[in-house]
Amino acid sequence: MRIVISEFISLDGVVQAPGGPEEDTDGGFAHGGWSHPFFDPEVVGGAFDDALSKAEALLFGRRTWQTMAGAWPERAGDPFADKMNAIAKYVVSDSLAEDELTWENTTRITGDEAVARIRELRATEGGDLVVMGSPTLVRTLLQEGLVDELRLMVMPVLLGGGKTIFPDGGKLNSLELVSTAISPAGVHVCTYRPVTEG
Question: CB–CB of 60/89 below 8 Å?
Fold first, then answer.
């Protein structure tokens, strides 16, 4: 499976709490829901539809999984929501108990085995393993060289600080832009893949 990262991201690299005001207020973040003014069903929504159509499974960190698990089951009946609910899901967490995994088809991966288990999943045949949100997990995947595609929905907004997906360890990672689309609201949907060395 390819590991595909799909993120709403501000011009200054923030991915924190694009969905709603109370989604993630860590560090005093006060701009929850910042992506809403820039969402359009055709370009931005189409990027998510495309990612989900190629997905065999979804991979989340705990906080993003809990947010999604609290939202998608109640939207059943919509084709996108039905796919989100039915697809296999993995959540990296040491704190979630098995009886808390109430979102259909969810499997927990403990933090100490996460990198090894994700490597195993990546080595299997099949569709994509798609990661949405989950900035801590995405930073780890980037640091470990486990990202096959990075799909960024770059919103024309500066948030002045917040969580990011980019590692800060000083390692150079070259990417190639393989596609781009621009929405009427100025969102750039950019798909990048790692440059193969040699």
Answer: yes
